[in-house]
């Protein structure tokens, strides 16, 4: 691959954990900090921005181009 770009857009991390916790509240039973952080929309959004800015997102976007020859 040429012209390969790797980015971590980081848009889904918090939503995935929040939705998983809604389905199974026992998931974060012993994670008081995360429960409090994710319970508030403002704090959850700020945490997602932090993950994105620090390139800590678990989601990755890879763009590459097959060589022409």
From TrEMBL:
Naturally occurring in which organism (per UniProt): marine metagenome
Protein name: Uncharacterized protein
């Amino acid at each position: 691959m040429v012209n390969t770009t790797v980015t971590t857009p980081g848009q889904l991390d918090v939503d995935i954990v929040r939705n998983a916790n809604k389905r199974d509240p026992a998931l974060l039973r012993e994670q008081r900090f995360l429960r409090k952080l994710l319970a508030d929309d403002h704090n959850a959004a700020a945490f997602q921005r932090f993950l994105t800015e620090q390139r800590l997102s678990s989601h990755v976007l890879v763009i590459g181009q097959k060589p022409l020859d």
